[in-house]
Amino acid sequence: MKTKSVFIMALILIFSMIASACGSAKEETAAAGKANGEKKELKIGATAGPYSDQINKGIKPILEKKGYKIEVVEFSDYVQPNKALAEGSLDANVFQNPLYLKKFAQDHNLHLTGVLEVPTAPIGLYSRKHKSLNDIQEGATVTLPNDPVNQARALTMLDQFGWIKLKEGIDPTKASEKDIAQNIKKLTILPLEAAQLPRSLDDADYAFINGNFAIASGLKLKEAVALEKTPPHYMIVLTVRTEDKDKMFVKDLVEAYKSSEFKEITDKEFEGFVKPDYQK
């Protein structure tokens, strides 16, 4: 009996040592990961609608297979996502184009960097009262975004429609109401916060609505009276803190967006989006 007891105690001791060794190995691995700057719990900010949907449906499952824990934080404005990223409560965000990012970062002295274009819902002109551009009448009310970058996009489209004429020689990406040389259709132009534009459809003749807010409000891109032919400088970009741009979690985010799995999701779930070069 005594020999048997000694044998059992020896086995217990051996198993304890093995368990301890495994635990130490895991702790050492975790410590090494932290030492190497690896990050496995990510908070990604996005405006409610297609860009948060892209992450939840496409990017999150891919990264979870690599051991990441992903939390998507939704926003309803274009200010807080960048502030939260700069302050460190987010690790990345997806909601803005490079021109907006550049101006916002300069105005607020933030160090943020766009690292990748993502499939983008174009800004469009919508109406509940009219079915085409030909329905325009003098004195019509047109609502558009009040932030400088997206307002310039809307004014440029109005110029293309022939409803207004912008001053010659201006930078169209910086156009504002003061750059209107001629209001050909005598429009009443009302700038509003981007998130409020879908609601303005009840009263306005036409409304310029960013694609993400249009979709979030239940509109479909194909319902637009006109859609912007989105150039590269208006494509939505995955944005991170500049100090993080070369870290592994950013590389893994980029790889997830460029994956064949995400392209399949884009083709199936995000019809009408402007695709970045890596998905063409």
UniProtKB/TrEMBL annotation:
Membrane topology, record value: Lipid-anchor
Predominant cellular place of this UniProt entry's protein: membrane
First and last residue of the signal peptide: 1-21
Residue runs in coiled coils: none
Compartments where located: Membrane
Entry annotated with the keyword Membrane: yes
Covalent lipid sites (S-diacylglycerol cysteine): 22
Highest taxon, organism lineage: Bacteria
This protein's UniProt keywords: Lipoprotein, Membrane, Palmitate, Signal
GO CC annotation: membrane
Alphabetized PANTHER family for the sequence: D-METHIONINE-BINDING LIPOPROTEIN METQ, METHIONINE-BINDING LIPOPROTEIN METQ
Family: Belongs to the nlpA lipoprotein family.
The protein's name in its UniProt record: Lipoprotein
Species in which this protein is naturally found: Aneurinibacillus thermoaerophilus
